[in-house]
Each structure stands twice: as C-alpha cells, then as structure tokens.
Design brief:
By secondary structure, the chain is mainly α. It is 53% helix and 7% strand.
C-alpha cells in the first residue's frame, strides 16, 4: 500500500502550469539567464513532481559554475544530478546525469582538497538568502511583444527582476 504521507498526484492544472514554467525556464536557459531558469525549473518540479526539471536545474547550476567557479555552485549541480538519477530511476537522461556526476565529483574532490586561499574566489552568489522577485512572461505566438511599466515593447519571453509593488 502507498505510504500515508505520500503527496497527492498533481492536478491537470498543476501539470499545465509546470509545463509553462518549464518552457519559461528553457527560454531563460537558452538566453543564459541561469538563475531565472533555476527558479522556473524548481517551481515546475514543485508543481509536477516529475524529474525532468531536476535535470534542467542541474544543467543550469553547471553552466553557472563554468563562469563563477564557486565550489558551492558545483555542489548544487552534483546534488541535483543525483536527485534526478534517484527520481528518474531508468530512461530519460539518466546516462547524461550519471556521466555528469562522474565528471564533476573528482573536480569537487580537488576543490575540497585545495589548501585554503588557493581556490578561485567566487564571482557571484547563486542562491541568495532571499529569492528575487522575477517576472516571466511568455506567449506561444511567434513575434509577440510585451511592454513593462511603459517601456519599449520587447519580444517575448520577458524575464526581468522587479521591485515589489505595482507595475
């Protein structure tokens, strides 16, 4: 019998929202807005409980590590790859995730073994103590544009950090 504490299966509405968020995350990833992509992928996973967004989150952390060289970013990438492998079990992108773990764990071990002060200084912190307010707007219509706060119209998707309040 299923465990009494098992979460309820996602509703059709949650799955639809998760797909929209995943698509926004993919667009953010493609435009190298990795923190926005991570936020969208994590919310897509929360809603759908499907493992695909976990893999995408790992990929985004790996891409951030390529520029920030922060060992914590690399740890996040490895942790998400492992979580994906655990949730996916078989099929999907298991082979890629397993290869990523094999590639990245030795690098993590080297970073951990480095004497203090020899590791490159982190350029940015990926996970802030407080998440940023980020607006993500997309449309399936090719060439659709959007204007925010009376600014110039820009082609979608729009992914922008905002201050809280009316816009």
């Amino acid at each position: 019998p299923p465990a009494a504490s098992a979460a309820a299966a996602p509703t059709a509405d949650q799955i639809a929202k998760a797909k929209t968020l995943f698509d926004l995350g993919a667009k953010a990833y493609d435009s190298e807005q990795f923190p926005a992509a991570i936020q969208a992928f994590q919310e897509a996973y929360r809603l759908s409980q499907r493992p695909g967004p976990i893999f995408s989150t790992a990929q985004a952390y790996r891409r951030i590590y390529n520029t920030d060289r922060n060992p914590e970013t690399l740890r996040q990438a490895v942790a998400y790859y492992k979580q994906y492998i655990d949730k996916q079990k078989t099929g999907g992108r298991i082979a890629e995730a397993q290869q990523a773990v094999r590639d990245l764990e030795p690098l993590l071990a080297q970073l951990a073994a480095a004497p203090p002060g020899t590791a490159p200084a982190p350029v940015m912190t990926v996970v802030d103590a407080k998440p940023k307010t980020r607006l993500m707007v997309s449309s399936p219509t090719k060439g659709a544009t959007v204007s925010l706060d009376g600014g110039d119209a820009a082609e979608m998707p729009l992914i922008q950090e905002l201050s809280p309040g009316t816009h």
